[in-house]
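Let's inspect one such protein example.
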Amino acid sequence: MRLLGQEVGPDRPFFLIAGTCVIESEDSALETAQAIAEIARRLGIFTVYKSSFDKANRTAHDSFRGPGLQEGLRILQRVREATGLPVLTDVHETAQVQPAAEVADILQVPAFLARQTDLVAAAARSGRAVNVKKAQFMAPEDTLPLVAKARAANPAVPLMLTERGAAFGYNTLVVDMRGLAVMRASGCPVIFDATHSAQRPGGEGTRSGGDRRSVPVLARAAVAAGISGLFMEVHPDPDRALSDGPNSWPLSRLEPLLRSLMALDAAAKAQPYAEDTL
């Protein structure tokens, strides 16, 4: 598939979606995005900056949600202009789709909203590329009707699917790497969210917990399984992040992790394996 002028897919080097979970301030967004852009240039990896103008699904009513639609989109526009990186942001309601599409290069349907037909259809009709995150309660096969919904709204939409872990009991997520192959049957590029897969939803009472130590392990497994893209929330100081700090990856450690993953990706894709030949 062609995405923002780049060829992406299971036979191409993986691309990166990275940034802070939520826009914390204009300065922090610009500083983080500049650092990510410099890493992307050094490594030669196609990269999209990700951050949310609003986190509508926070655990507690008084958790930080972000600057809101208007201010958040203004900051994302500044990021695009200052870094040259394309940007991705979440949309939670159909009314947010068109304003977000005027700024963002990719619209993302959050995992909790992946079954919302009107939202998926509106995003597909927006004229922007769309990334839909597989809900924690969905089986890999459940993404195939989801793709059909988007295609019914706009057959030409550049559409991606993201695996972010499945609910396993309370406050725990697990990843079934077999599901990545199932999701590839949709014909869409499959992305692996290495940081949300390390999350413990609601695991700290009034906020979600996580174990960022498992991020490299999960990322390596997914890259070896043949993903098209890697999604990572990164932060200059994860322990002080205003959202998803426990599962965010330190910005200072992003480049060495990417270098190891890129080497593994090249080795895995040097001898492609087609599941559908069995």
